[in-house]
Amino acid sequence: MSDGFVGYRSALVEALQRKGVRDMAVLRAIATVPRHQFVPEHIRHRAYEDEALPIGNGQTISQPFVQARSCELLQLTGRERVLEIGTGSGYQTALLSMLAESVFSIERVPELARRAHETLRALGDYENVSVMHADGTLGWKPNAPYDAIVVAAASPSVPRPLVEQLTVGGRMVIPVGSQDAQVLTLVTRDADGTGYREEPIHDVRFVPLLGEFGFTPQD
Ligand code: SAH
């Protein structure tokens, strides 16, 4: 895409490679998705910095490194059905759209869900994506099970409905901890389907996951 930001995207890809991102499909997605279209106009010039940025409604678009790492941990091959909790700007949804067969994304703030849906539709390249306004801690049962789930907000624990909607052997990436500090965690559903394993990856800081199986607003 020649939109005047190609050089910035390449520089971001190089920065992510230096930080250890290796998955070529993920790097290709970062090199392709126009991140500047997903951030408010007045901070567009900062869109390709490896930083979280405000997107309105008290929410943030996460740091590209964390988004790339999360996608990489899911080990997507292009054939998966993916559930994303916390659509936010829709940027990570667009990355996932390029990496999987279909993407179902849930956002709790109606205004953000609407805007993300419009951004994705206007760009025209992300037709395998559905965005819904709801409490994502409950998952999206009619389309379950999912081969991969990515949670883009901090949770006190792994929400049970999400584990139940993961395929046997499926992978979920979720920041688990307090509202102030979390550990990005890789959850793998056991081969016999009865339980799951949790593997800590690294320290992160996300906005809270607010919902029935997340934090309650007064926590
Ligand atoms: N991945 C996003 C960043 C999301 S920030 C991006 O690329 O822009 C986290 C988002 O999770 C916020 O938009 C917040 O409103 C949303 N969120 C918080 N709790 C939620 C819940 N229970 N269900 C769905 N979305 C939730």
Task: Give a description of the structure.
- This protein has helices spanning about 5-20, 25-30, 65-75, 90-100, 110-125, 160-165; strands at about 55, 60, 80-85, 100-105, 130-135, 145-150, 165-175, 180-190, 195-205.
- It contains 6 helices and 9 strands, in the order H-H-E-E-H-E-H-E-H-E-E-H-E-E-E.
- It has one domain: Rossmann fold, CATH 3.40.50.150.
- The chain is α/β, with parallel strands linked by helices and about 220 residues long.
- Strands 5-4-3-6-7-8-9 form a 7-stranded mixed sheet. Strands 1-2 form a two-stranded antiparallel sheet.
- The chain is about 25% helix and about 25% strand.
- A hairpin with a 4-residue loop joins strand 7 (about 165-175) and strand 8 (about 180-190).
- The mean pLDDT is about 95.
- The protein binds S-adenosyl-L-homocysteine.
- S-adenosyl-L-homocysteine (SAH) binds near residues 59, 85, 108, 135 and 207.
Overview features:
alpha/beta, single chain, 219 residues, binds S-adenosyl-L-homocysteine, Rossmann fold, globular, two-stranded antiparallel ribbon, seven-stranded mixed β-sheet
